[in-house]
DNA sequence: TTAGGGTTAG
């Protein structure tokens, strides 16, 4: 017996119209589509399946859409339905699934510009260059090699995958370049870290008479951020205001980021406060601007403000807050952020690395190591952070062991890995190993030494007294050494009393007219060590003329969760008298044990007893005395110093650790020193 | 009926 079917099923044209008008906002529901689906099956109306599948895709029933399409009689008319499914998979944030849909296309189907464009966008999101190549070959074979949408999508894949050479090739070959193609190139150069070329693209775009829009302006602002060209960024900002262009949240955020990253904090705050709507990313741009520029307290204040404004801090904000904690050694807050993450968020790699780095910089090598051991998925950045952590804490052998362990995982080390490794070996005085791995880095791993690597190797050699060898190495190099490299060599000369070579280097440094006050101070210290007081006066004048002041040395210590800062000769601390008493008590004990003040570290032409007194009031000693007065016996003290610890303080703290029987950890501008029982972990490779 | 935009770890 034949089934009675509703009459409307016979009117396929009308049905197609109804199905194509459905969307996620229309009253058509998945249930209605499912009922219709059943009727179509019974009435053998499979030729309507593509329309039904597209309707399923539009209302978000993607699995139903996919299976309906798979059961469709394949024909050219299926393509809009396949496209709808691809677009829906892409929108749902599953580019992998979208690409699977593309691959599942029946051979009889003829993909069009939309299909290829959607497939390429999925490849871009996946960062899969090989998959993109397969799509490209099919698209070009199908005659879409000059299609503006397909080509723009291809540009996007290439720039997302760092293949800017390919992007340029495709872009140059495009017969028609619209504003999307131009802005894709601008953004591509920015993300490749080539902001100058990004700005070049932008000016070529304007020369071609292509109208600029908000999207391309974001790329331009980012390029200005990277080049530090805030003048140009500000003129873009001005044009926005003058022309009444729509200042959306993305544009405003990139402006906040540009101003904050380049130290224009007031303008950054102002733009931020004027935003009619802010989201987590806008907050993060401002917070990270402060955190990355040594304004930890402002960053942490903003982080708290964000939390109380009703916005839940996301991983970006937490990362910046952790960075700020690390900067000033705020362990208590750092620990509580770690706890918050464990309770509330997924512990992904970036956050893990930020927490690890925070523990490392706050002096807790053990916590950093424990965390590293616990994290199961480790990317290269995490490995590099752990290697750097061992290095700064003076554990060169551990750093080397980690590096070898990394090589066994198959992850390829990069320039940063070697920078951390070489610095670790240098700090631990592992000269032979350092020379060996520097050589292998170039020959086996094919990594060109950067300035950073050269500084490490020169430092490694110079620190061990091999200043002549370091000098010869520099002479054999193809390029002229930069100031930081000369500085590494000069510090080696100063520390090893190779004053003659030191003076030659000092001359070379002065020839390049350094403005950095720290560099001038080092040069002046060398001349002071050589007792060339005329030269010292000359350099002091240069320092004065350069307009900036020498950064004053300060030390931070966290006691019972509160941070205290100490500056040399600062008498404003409420416990100042007690601190002085503690220092003189310690000095008395130290002398009994054989301590002799190393007054050569006072680079002023003063009487010996004045020099001795100056040494004993260095900020790290004030902080230690304060820590001893306010913590119970046996408590470990962690001091964060902004400059390097001087050789005399290094000696003194060894004695102090013995006298008070405490572990004292000092982080200076370069590394950590763990003092315990009269010795330092750095084995006096200070 | 499809392509391009902001922050965050070593």
TrEMBL record:
Keyword Lipid biosynthesis recorded: no
A single BP term in Gene Ontology: RNA modification
Keywords: Repeat, Transit peptide
InterPro entries for the chain: DYW_dom, E_motif, PPR_At4g14850-like_plant, PPR_rpt, TPR-like_helical_dom_sf
PPR repeat windows: 147-177, 178-212, 248-278, 279-313, 379-413, 414-449
Residue spans crossing the bilayer: none
Domain named DYW: residues: 594-686
GO MF entry, a single one: RNA binding
Protein origin, superkingdom: Eukaryota
Protein's UniProt name: DYW domain-containing protein
């Amino acid at each position: 017996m034949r089934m009675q079917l509703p009459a409307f099923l016979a009117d396929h044209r009308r049905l197609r119209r109804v199905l194509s008008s459905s969307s996620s906002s229309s009253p058509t529901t998945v249930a209605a589509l499912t009922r219709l689906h059943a009727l179509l099956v019974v009435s053998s109306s499979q030729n309507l399946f593509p329309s039904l599948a597209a309707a399923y895709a539009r209302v978000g029933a993607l699995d139903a859409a996919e299976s309906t399409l798979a059961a469709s009689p394949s024909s050219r008319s299926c393509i809009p339905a396949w496209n709808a499914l691809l677009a829906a998979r892409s929108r749902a944030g599953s580019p992998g699934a979208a690409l699977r849909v593309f691959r599942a296309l029946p051979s009889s189907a003829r993909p069009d510009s939309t299909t290829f464009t959607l497939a390429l966008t999925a490849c871009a999101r996946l960062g899969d260059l090989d998959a993109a190549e397969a799509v490209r070959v099919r698209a070009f074979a199908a005659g879409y090699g000059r299609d503006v949408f397909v080509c723009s999508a291809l540009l996007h894949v290439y720039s997302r995958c760092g293949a800017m050479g390919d992007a340029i090739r495709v872009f140059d070959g495009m017969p028609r370049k619209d504003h999307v193609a131009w802005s894709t190139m601008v953004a591509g150069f920015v993300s490749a870290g080539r902001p100058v070329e990004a700005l070049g693209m932008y000016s070529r775009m304007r020369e071609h008479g292509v109208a600029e829009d908000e999207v391309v302006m974001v790329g331009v602002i980012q390029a200005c951020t990277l080049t530090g060209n805030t003048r140009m960024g500000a003129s873009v900002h001005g044009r926005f205001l003058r022309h009444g262009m729509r200042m959306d949240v993305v544009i405003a955020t990139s402006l906040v980021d540009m101003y904050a990253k380049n130290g224009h904090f007031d303008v950054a705050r102002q733009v931020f406060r004027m935003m009619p709507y802010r989201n987590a990313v806008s907050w993060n741009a401002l917070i990270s601007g402060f955190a990355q520029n040594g304004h930890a307290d402002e960053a942490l204040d903003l982080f708290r403000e964000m939390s109380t404004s009703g916005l839940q801090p996301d991983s970006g904000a937490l990362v910046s807050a952790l960075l700020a904690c690390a900067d000033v050694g705020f362990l208590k807050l750092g620990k509580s952020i770690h706890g918050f993450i464990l309770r509330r968020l997924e512990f992904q790699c970036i956050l893990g690395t930020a927490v690890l780095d925070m523990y490392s910089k706050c002096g807790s090598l053990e916590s950093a190591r424990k965390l590293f051991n616990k994290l199961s998925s480790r990317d290269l950045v995490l490995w590099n952070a752990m290697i750097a952590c061992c290095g700064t804490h003076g554990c060169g052998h551990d750093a080397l062991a980690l590096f070898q362990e990394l090589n066994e995982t198959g992850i390829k080390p990069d320039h940063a890995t070697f920078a951390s490794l070489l610095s670790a070996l240098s700090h631990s005085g592992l000269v032979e190993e350092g020379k060996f791995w520097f050589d292998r880095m170039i020959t086996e791993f094919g990594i060109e030494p950067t300035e950073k690597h050269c500084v490490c190797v020169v430092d490694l050699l110079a620190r061990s007294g091999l200043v002549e060898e370091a000098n010869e190495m520099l002479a054999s190099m193809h390029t002229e050494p930069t100031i930081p490299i000369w500085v590494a060599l000069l510090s080696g000369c100063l520390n090893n009393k190779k004053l003659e070579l030191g003076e030659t280097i000092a001359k070379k440094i002065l020839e390049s007219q350094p403005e950095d006050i720290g560099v001038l101070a080092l040069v002046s210290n060398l001349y002071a060590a050589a007792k060339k007081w005329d030269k010292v006066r000359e350099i002091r004048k240069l320092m004065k003329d350069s307009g900036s002041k020498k950064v004053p040395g300060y030390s931070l210590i966290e006691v019972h969760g509160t941070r205290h800062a100490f500056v040399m000769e600062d008498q404003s601390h409420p416990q100042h008298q007690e601190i002085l008493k503690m220092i003189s008590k310690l000095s008395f004990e130290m002398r009994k044990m054989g301590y002799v003040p190393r007054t050569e570290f006072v680079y002023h032409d003063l009487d010996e007893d004045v020099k001795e007194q100056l040494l004993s009031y260095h900020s790290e000693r004030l902080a230690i005395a304060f820590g001893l007065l306010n913590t119970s016996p046996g408590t470990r003290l962690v001091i964060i110093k902004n400059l390097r610890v001087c050789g005399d303080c290094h000696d003194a703290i060894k004695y102090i650790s013995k006298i008070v029987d405490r572990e004292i950890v000092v982080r200076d501008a370069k590394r950590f020193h763990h003092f315990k029982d009269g010795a330092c972990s750095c084995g006096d490779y200070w």
